[in-house]
Structure formats: C-alpha cells, structure tokens
Specification:
Number of strands: 8
Shape: elongated
Number of domains: 2
CATH class of the largest domain: Alpha Beta
Helix content: 40-55%
CATH topology of the largest domain: Rossmann fold
Radius of gyration: 25 Å
Number of helices: 15
Strand content: 5-15%
Order of helices and strands: EHEHEHEHEHEHEHHEHHHHHHH
Largest sheet: 8 strands, mixed
CATH architecture of the largest domain: 3-Layer(aba) Sandwich
Oligomer: single chain
CATH superfamily of the largest domain: NAD(P)-binding Rossmann-like Domain
Length: 325
C-alpha cells in the first residue's frame, strides 16, 4: 500500500522505516532536507516540497502527519487541503488535543477530505518492537488504512476506539496514567535511595520485572537508566511536560472525576522546574511569623541535593508552644 509521511523526527522517521521494511511504498516529506536524504537511503521516496510530495501519491491518497501538535498541524492541513483531492485521508499521528480532532474532521469533511486521529505509543523503540495505536474517526476510513496499522503495530497492537477524537482522547488518558506510574516509581526509588539500605537500583528494577505486581516496560527503562548511571549523575531533577498530562487533568475536572494521583504527578513536574517557588517562600515566612522559626537566606541553597529532605528537626519547647494555634 502507498502512504505519504510528513515529519521525519524521532517517531516519524522510524515509522516510515518500519512501513518501508513491511513492503509499503512510502513517500516522505520534511522541511529538513537532510532528513529526507537519510530516508531516501533506506528506500523511501523523498520529496522536497509539499506539491511534489502530493504529486508522487496516487489518489485516493493517505497522508500521515507526525509533527508537533497545535498550530503546526493546522498549518500543514491548510497547506495540504489545497493540494489533495476529494476522498483523500489525512491521519494525525501526533499528540493532538481531541477537541481539535473533532473540529478538523468537520472542516475537512466540508471540502471532501477524510480525517483520522491516531494516538501512537512506542517511542524510539517502536521501529523494532512496533507501535501501540489508538484510532479515532470513521470506521470506513479506519478499515481502509488497516494494512498500514497492521505493519506498524505488534500483534494485537492497534484498536478502533470510536468517532473523531476518540484516538487522541484515549492516548491522552494513557499519558495521564503514564505520569502517575512514573511518579510512583520515582518516589519509591527515592525512598530506597534515602534509606540505610543501598541495593543496586538497576538490579532491583530488573528484579521487580521478574513476576512482581509492579513489573512494566517503565521498569525496564529504569533498569537501563540506573545501569548507565547508578546515581543519575549529570541529570538535573528538571522534568518537562508536553501537554497531555494537563489535558488529562482538565478533562477530569470537566467530567467530575477525581484524579489525585495524575494531578499531583503533573504538579510535581511543575515544582521540579521552579528554582525557588513563591509558595514555599510564603510557607517559610508564615512559620517564621507564628513560631519564630529560622528561614534560609535568599541566595543560600540549604536544600538537599540527594535523596530525601533529611530527618525532622525537633522543635524546642519554646518553638512547640509558639506553633500551637
């Protein structure tokens, strides 16, 4: 089957490779000409411009986007809509917001184009292991591109989830769960690291994957990370979020669903990016006001840089009396 792939980043390039290795004819376009050249070396047909890209595809066309969510997707769809023909289908395989999918499908349907949203999980390992995919949109279009999905996914690794937006909605929830799981693992390992016991964390992660109830691929990745650097030297405790966790928390609020673990995991990432949070300054100031407790001088970093914050400092009798409300 023929497919056009736009976006040859970490995910897009490997997906194009897997499709080509699976016998599909892949036409690829990326603004970076070096990426297109690299793809051509692996039997992928390269295109330097969108018009050339569309011209190399036979109608009815299938165009798969693997580009950043938001405005880049809308801009690319706008450009493509003037080049594609009625009946062509655009697949967004990035991490788009599901409400954007619903809007895009309606806009494209009005001009005779089709749209599918596909949540893709598998990361840089997907080339060899395959990609788990969650698909939203018209079932007819899903069935039309199913040969591509079978090639990209491992056995039983894809699922039709419902109408437009369903694929990215399910992927959003998936990523929210991922936030919570990662936070739980991180906290557990820190408790162990701060303890008097010092097991090899790489071996421990490996052990837990041998039949324990918390075994997972994330633990495999933790094993690799600790094997590379037992104390994670060179890695700052600065954790980005790419948007899906926020959307999951927002959706929980809209739906009236209590999601404390996912919410706190997201907030933990926010805190990791603050050098000296204002809220902690307020807490320190209040303790100083009501109890005369010492505060650390601004600019002096008295914080722990290892595992744990240290033991509790017992209050003096005078401090204890002051702290009583």
């Amino acid at each position: 089957m023929q497919i056009g792939m736009i976006g040859l980043g970490r995910m897009g390039m490997n997906m194009a490779r897997r499709l080509a290795r699976g016998g599909h004819e892949v036409v690829a376009y990326d603004r970076g000409e070096d990426k297109v050249a690299a793809a051509q070396k692996e039997g992928i047909i390269g295109a330097r411009m969108p018009a050339e890209f569309v011209g190399r595809l036979a109608a009815p066309r299938v165009v798969w986007l693997m580009i950043p969510a938001g405005a880049p997707v809308d801009d690319q769809i706008k450009e493509l809509s003037g080049l594609l023909s009625e009946g062509d289908v655009i697949i967004d395989g990035g991490n788009s917001y599901y409400k954007d999918d619903i809007r895009r499908e309606k806009e494209l349907e009005a001009i005779g184009l089709r749209y599918l949203d596909v949540g893709v999980s598998g990361g840089v390992w997907g080339l060899d292991l395959g990609y788990c995919m969650m698909i939203g949109g018209a079932r007819k279009e899903f069935e039309r591109v199913e040969p591509l999905l079978k090639t990209l996914a491992p056995l039983n690794g894809y699922m039709y989830c419902g109408p437009s937006g369903a694929g990215h909605f399910i992927k959003m929830a998936h990523n929210g769960i991922e936030y919570g799981m990662m936070q739980a693992y991180a906290e557990g390992f820190e408790i162990i690291e701060a303890s008097p016991y010092k097991p090899d964390l790489s071996k421990l992660a490996h052990l837990w994957n041998q039949g324990s109830v918390i075994r997972s691929w994330l633990l495999e990745l933790a094993e690799h990370a600790f094997s590379d650097s037992p104390k994670l030297e060179g890695i700052a405790g600065f954790v980005e979020d790419s948007g899906e966790g926020r959307w999951t928390v927002q959706q929980a609020v809209e739906s009236g669903v209590a999601a404390p673990v996912i919410t706190l995991a997201l907030y933990g990432r926010f805190l990791s990016r603050q050098k000296d949070s204002f809220s902690n300054k307020v807490l320190a100031a209040l303790r100083n006001q009501f109890g005369g407790h010492a505060t650390a001088k601004a600019g002096a970093d008295a914080r722990s840089s290892g595992a744990g914050a240290g033991s509790v400092r017992a209050a003096t009798p005078e401090e204890a009396r002051r702290e009583k409300p």
